[in-house]
Design brief:
homodimer, 210 residues, alpha/beta, six-stranded mixed β-sheet, 11 helices
């Protein structure tokens, strides 16, 4: 083959990748449910920093799986994360992915209230019946609004995936979620993103029913 | 404000982020057109490794801008990258984003030929009239097929963005593109992804017309 490349079947690539990741993690271990999420993030970004920066509230993955299997919706703040979440795996349990960022009514309301579209999107998400997982890969203001609504008692997230990426207010907004009395999975520090938000969702979805 | 967070207007966040990135890069410099792409990748992943791993063929960004302004299409191997590329900015010059990965006919042809869907997608991309930028954020086999087609003379990419992420054949497929006689932007090593593919596209698009 070209350049010494041996073609590996698509279904085997993920298996081999996970073996490589496990080997390079050395002796590091997590509870099985968390390990699957940590490794999927590392796999998604080829970045072992996720072994150090991911923080899980007690039983977060277990609770998230239960929510998914009870038909939870996933609300996300970016169309990229929405594109990356395995919607078939979620639909199997009755859930749907929602991203309200491109809705014109969201833009109008945000402008009128002088807040970000991401905050309005979280408010829309809070209005969805049944359990809701909030997967935030971009906007610190989404996490800040969720925190406020939790304190007001106007939202009861089944899980907050708090993984915005960046340099302004990102670290602080994630630290805020670490103090919230709800299940969370947070990537501390600057790193994260839509790809990580989707990877965490998929890492949960692929464990459901097992 | 909560937790010492001062809300920053959305339009200022990117400006401040870029200032922070520039400061943390210290004295490192690139030609202006490349710097804008490097910094956008760092911004997207909060990962300064992109300062070291991005490789540009001679004049790649300049050539890519010319292609976009001549109406180039962008072909990508993931729906996440397609979601992340600024389609309005591309449409301004007449171009469209194509991702054929979910087409049933692509799946059928891939199965029949015993190749990956990503390879077939690149073949479909080669059939698009006018200049085409190939943005590969996931599949090493997409880069391998592009390399083969370049050698066969059946594709003449305006640019290859070679940034698949992962642990199996990823490094090798990117090294292959570095030997191809076409314009390229490649993230050497394991890192990359759909988010980086989209960031590079947007880093080019936001320079067009300037």
């Amino acid at each position: 083959m070209l350049n010494g490349i041996t073609i590996v079947k698509p279904e085997e690539i993920e298996k081999r990748s996970m073996e490589i990741i496990t080997a390079e993690l050395g002796g590091r271990t997590w509870p099985e449910e968390e390990a699957l999420v940590v490794k999927r993030c590392i796999h998604t970004a080829a970045d072992f920093d996720y072994a150090d920066n991911l923080v899980f509230s007690e039983g977060a993955v277990k609770l998230a799986k239960e929510a998914v299997m009870a038909g939870a919706s996933i609300v996300t703040d970016t169309s990229m994360a929405a594109a990356g979440i395995n919607k078939k795996a979620l639909a199997r349990w009755g859930g749907r992915v929602h991203c309200f960022m491109a809705d014109e009514s969201v833009a109008a309301e945000a402008k009128e209230k002088g807040v970000t579209r991401a905050s309005i999107c979280m408010e829309r998400g809070a209005g969805i019946p049944g359990p809701v997982i909030f997967a935030v890969g971009n906007a610190p203001t989404a996490l800040i609004r969720l925190y406020e609504m939790i304190r007001e008692g106007t939202v009861h997230p089944a899980l907050i995936i708090g993984v915005p990426v960046g340099f302004v207010n990102v670290v602080e907004s994630k630290e805020l979620i670490l103090t919230a009395p709800v299940p969370y999975i947070v990537a501390r520090g600057r790193k994260g993103g839509s790809n990580i938000a989707a990877a965490i969702c998929n890492g949960i979805l692929y464990q459901c029913g097992r």
